[in-house]
């Protein structure tokens, strides 16, 4: 069933790129409509999987990626509706389509192990996924900031200048996304520590939970990177391009932790 949201996301991607190129209001409304339909289909899928498993589908890498994509799309739609700016869609949707392809081609089976029961596990994973969705938005906003800044610096006010919000607006959006992501990342890590301390010790995955596990170590590295970015933007004036570059670096670490480490390297989070 992951194929249906993927197909709708792909259609929305084509419409957003077309709108970004042509700037025609009708095409823009079509792109938003397709994305909303895709989000509804994905919401239905997440709801069905939640009813079948008894919890949010996040206990294997494929389902966690699907839930992350869903949260990313909802976050982007909220941003689009509150700012009335569709330009980011042409940059967000390629990531959405690429990631949603993974659960569409390799769907996972939800683990109903006792160690995964209880509200703390759901809060832990949901908070981290929402944080990662915010960081994805910040990364895309940062990329567009650099593209626009490069065009302005070259004194060639053309393609991006006519289609993107101002540098100041992009910088503000980036800082807000980082702040929200950092908050939920912090909550997710704290709740994760509490959950691990209360989890049954007989489960080998619980026994493997330490900073030596790549997934846990990289998660704290992410927290360090985004903590520095949040601090630097407010205390030492590291906004603009520096914040944009840090957002890109931080999200690259997130993707590293989210896909290859989750699939191949972790011993404690191979749910």
Structure notes:
With 271 residues, the chain is mainly alpha-helical. It has two domains: 1-107; 115-271, no CATH class. 76% of the residues lie in helices and 0% in strands. The protein has ten helices and no strands. The two termini are 21 Å apart.
List the helices and strands and how they pair.
Layout: H1 3-22, H2 25-53, H3 61-83, H4 89-105, H5 119-153, H6 167-198, H7 204-207, H8 214-235, H9 240-258, H10 260-265
Helix pairs in contact: 1-2, 1-4, 2-3, 3-4, 3-5, 5-6, 5-9, 6-8, 6-9, 8-9
Quick recap:
With 271 residues, the chain is mainly α. 76% of the residues lie in helices and 0% in strands.
Low-pLDDT segments: none
Query: Could you tell me the mean pLDDT?
Result: 86
Order of helices and strands: HHHHHHHHHH
Reported for the largest beta sheet, the result is: none
Number of helices: 10
Beta content comes to: under 5%
Shape summary? globular
